[in-house]
Write a structure and sequence with these properties.
Largest sheet: none
Helix content: 55-70%
Structural class: mainly alpha
Radius of gyration: 15 Å
Distance between the termini: 11 Å
Number of helices: 4
Order of helices and strands: HHHH
Number of strands: 0
Strand content: under 5%
Length: about 100
């Protein structure tokens, strides 16, 4: 994810910035998130899908295990991933079609 620069020191600095941004934003979302597996309410909404997409990129391409620090967000991620239509989409390989914004 941070391979855009060959300078190792710059990569480390950028990684720290990204980590701080994730901690700040995920921390706020964790506080505001519902406890039943959705960010808002009790059914799948666009905000859940947007969060899932972002979290999937972070978990799979940047820093696996990030969601362990955010139990409510981890539950949202798991709930969306377990949705039968989303699970089918992932299984069919569509999730990687636009992999990581490429």
């Amino acid at each position: 994810m941070l391979d855009f620069t060959p300078d190792e020191k710059e990569k480390e600095e950028k990684a720290k910035e990204v980590d701080q941004l994730i901690a700040e934003k995920f921390g706020k979302c964790e506080k505001l998130s519902g406890s039943d597996g959705h960010l808002v309410g009790n059914s799948l909404l666009w905000c859940d899908l947007v969060f899932f997409n972002l979290a999937q990129t972070i978990e799979e391409a940047y820093k696996p295990g990030t969601l362990q620090n955010y139990p409510k967000l981890a539950k949202v991620y798991a709930t969306v991933k377990a949705n039968p239509r989303i699970a089918k989409w992932i299984a069919e390989g569509q999730a990687g079609h636009y992999q990581y914004g490429v």
